[in-house]
What does this fold into?
Amino acid sequence: MLKRRNVLTAGLALPLAAGAASAKGQMPQDPLVGSWSLIEAMTVQKDGETGPWDGHTRPYTGLIVYGASGMMSVQIATARAPMPSDGNLRKLTADEQLAYLHSYYAYYGKYEFDPARSVVTHFVQSSLDPTETGIVYRRAVKLVGDVVTLTTLEPNDASGSHNVLSWRRL
It folds into this structure.
């Protein structure tokens, strides 16, 4: 009985493995899959002038993760005021609390990478900024060695500026 079960198991496993292998052979490997650390972030004005990313104070730290499952997440922290000595943020004024909130950026959702156009699309499922939930962001992708640069394709606002963020593979 045990031998027959092994034969049946092997008989089922081989077609499944072959199907998985052929599916893998048809899909190009996604070069974005992995974890990336932020190395540069800037906003480029319509006239080409560059400045701090979305007006935030440097330095920036950040992490973007692209999963093989098609999910992604991004987190960016900008320079912050010192923490209160007792560590209780609730003792800060409303303006100070708002400044802390604006010094952090995060969202997650599904993503799709189009290698033919070198464009990644982020489908925001949830964000620290609730107005971004449901938004779709498209980024031009430039991959050189272990650095990927993502550039917003649509202008940020009426000024015509766009963001350029560079990330190093971890």
